[in-house]
Amino acid sequence: MVEEGALLWEPTPEIIRSAKITRFQEWLGRPGEYHDIWQWSVDSPAEFWTAIWDYFAVAGERGDGPVVTGEMPDARWFEGSTINYAENALRGDPARLSVIFRDEAGNRRTYTVGELRAEVGRVRAGLVRLGVTRGDRVAAYVPNIPEALIAFLATASLGAIWSSCSPDFGAPSVIDRFTQIEPKVLFAVDGYRYGGKSFDRRNVVQDIAATLPSLAATVRIPYQNGIDGAVSWEELRGEEAEPEFDRVPFGHPLWILYSSGTTGLPKPIVHGHGGIVLEHLKALSFHQDLGSDDVFFWYTTTGWMMWNFLIGGLLVGSTVVLYDGSAAHPATDALWNVTAEEGVTYFGTGAPYIVASMKAGVKPHGLDRLRGLGSTGSPLPPEGFAYVYSHVKPDVQLGSFSGGTDVCTGFVGAVPLLPVRAGVIPCRCLGARVESYDPEGRSVLGEVGELVLTQPMPSMPVMFWNDPDGSRYHDSYFADYPGVWRHGDWIKIQPDGGCVIYGRSDSTLNRGGVRMGTSEFYRVVERFEEVADSLVIDTGQLGQEGRLLLYVALAEGSSLEETLVTRLRTTLRAELSPRHVPDEIIEVPGIPRTLSGKKLEVPVRKILLGVPVEKAANRDAMANPEVLDHFLPIP
Predict the structure, then answer these.
(1) Full-model pTM
(2) Where is the Acetyl-coenzyme A synthetase N-terminal domain (predicted)?
């Protein structure tokens, strides 16, 4: 058992001196502790975000309009300015290594800045020939390969709007997303490889294209067999052309991301060029401490916002590593091996991969250059923190981050000026006025409450697509506290600024009036070697106590014997409370997760309470839809 808050790492004076945030403070003339610059960033947002623009010499026309006008949800930033994401991403020495591509089959490709610019110029010219202009949508059904990045940058350079899904999405899930945005061009692969197996996607692509009457063309990126009637990638990029960049208004749509879509139609979340450029410059430089000497790798697919965050490494001049394939093929250490072989300096992944490595006893080697490790997607338990320092690398800075697709960044995270403590996220991020609200809507410290933002950020959505009056956007974040963003997570902000995330506030365990986030429960249960994964559901409803059900997926060779059940109950009673002993412990073959690895707590709860599966969850938005059949309504 690792005590929450145990000190695991402290920055040396040299790390603090050389940190990019320290240089920024020197440039500002604002030396001091991290809390001091954070407080300034939220007290003086216009000065802070102007300083980000100026410090990074953002390519664009600043204009003479106000930095921010209006209040949430109608705040507008840098009106009168123009900018283009792709122009800022493709700056720098043409000879500098920009992209490394790896896949699980052992293939490797690289691109310099000059080579990447040339490819973007070619594909941009091809899109123009297909009739793509500013404001058109370009959709992609592609894995995390260089062609995806090139197609995105070419799209952005035109002021067109990008949207992507990973090819492990089923046709209905993709159709739910792309029919909402009516794309003019669809980039697609005819297949993909995962876990050592090949998957044919030709019929899926044809099904998707058939539902999109707005399409002028489908562009086939080569994988194996071809797609009937499609323009080939080679044909599209067949003409040499210098890249050009159409500068657009600060809030002009850059890309459309989607909520998970596990229930109902996914929300099409639109982010703007300017907000993403400023936010990613800030986050990647000052919180991840990335620059031109770094190799940046985050394991992700094109269907998760972390792909958009990863390619943001180009904005700060880092070399980005794109990886296509399974994290655990041929073995659990696959990503650690890529990190070692490519000399990665900052590696990021989902918290489940770190926990899986811990359970498998993985001891990575060759991580000489690794100095930063990122974790996101779900709360990392204190034991996961401790594993990193005992088995991965004792001098690495582990940064657990929490934010979301909604803003394409983290609200709370790490910074090289602050120590790392088990289970604790070190700080609220610069420019993010994060607070914890109690049930009466009062800001509290040292207590678990609703995570809210009481001040706008530039990377908040500029809108939801097809939401002309803004009602869907308003109802998603501002219905509970007018003018305040409610994110839907439980958070405790400690007096020193450290934060602990306790899971989604809409999947709370409320037993006898004692509320608890699910992450505390998982921390106890998943410490058992016999338990590979778990899901806890409280079926209680307003004014009515329900049953507390614990579902466990067991490690290979384990069985749910009475001795294990007794040990689980005894430990939960001792470490949580008697109220949190499950009424029933049920073995299932797997825990339902989204394609980005998040547990489906709310949809499963709906199923247990009698909502039909097809209404409670979208199987095509899941990584393992077959396991849903093992979750049955409570009689």
Answers:
(1) 0.86
(2) 34-89
